[in-house]
């Protein structure tokens, strides 16, 4: 079979593979240009004759973070060196930094930024902690994430929200002692409802931990929480993907 070719703008024939390579180079160049523009715009804010407000700097930092966490971290370092005496970073600034460091896997820097928040006496909201919780769970450091959510956050006057618990529940599915950690969540005050059970059971099924998923389903029913259509659809979907055609009958009878 002959290789399919496409016409380039200059009339030359290029293979699909070469076209993909060209597209990759263009995307890389665009990313580099975007990074350059972000640094240039940030420098203009830093060197204005009149001092830029922290709101302007935070907005620019957030815009950069949406496209490239690494660029945002670089801009923050520049901000600390140039603008800190006149415009010190605030809670929003460090929240952006925690998010960026967590997304690129620099958890040491994320913890350092969180430490700055704590030492400054700011009252952080749950959303500030969420990226760090997710990054820890992604690295199977769920116990550390739970310590932050269940112990450190309340001490700092911050109550974990539904999103915080969802991150922890999904993280539990990635560890071997999921049931023990789930019991710990309950003992720390989490009231499991249908959504909590469904989230955890879905995650366990996705990772072929069927015995633990069944154990949770039994506990859910024992607590008087009746499975609904969403629960059964999720369960049957996982079973059918595994071609365990006899298993759905067990749950439906």
TrEMBL record:
Entry-linked InterPro entries: PPR_P_subfamily, PPR_rpt, TPR-like_helical_dom_sf
- Note whether rRNA-binding occurs among the keywords: no
Keywords of this entry: Repeat, Transit peptide
In the record for this protein, the PPR repeats are positioned at 90-124, 125-160, 193-227
Looking at the keywords, is Transmembrane present?
no
Q: Which family does it belong to?
A: Belongs to the PPR family. P subfamily.
Under what name is this protein listed? Pentatricopeptide repeat-containing protein
